[in-house]
Input
Amino acid sequence: MKIGSFLAGGLIAVACSALTPALAQNIGKGEVLAEQRCARCHGIKPGQKSKHGLAPTFPKIASRYSVWGLQEALAEGIVVGHADMPRFVFSPEEINDLLAFMDTFSRKKGSSQ
Output
């Protein structure tokens, strides 16, 4: 019984460690994407203010909403209430990367997909 529990625990640890670098890579790619496409208006990190008065910061968005709820809007081209926001269309991989980065600011950890 102890050997079975030990093996199961080991397999879980190996599976989790295998996912960690991929998730870290997604978060890193998402941060670069946010810097390239979003940072000219949005504060994308804690302590940063948004450069545009109507653009909420990423930490504020993540604290108020499940960022994964933005998948469809990002896929279709996010459109908001102020006219000067550019219309962005992201690939599925870019969406997952960007949302993985934004999810690092969520109050509820484990809110990922």
In short: Residues 41 and 51 are 5 Å apart (CA to CA). The radius of gyration is 17 Å.
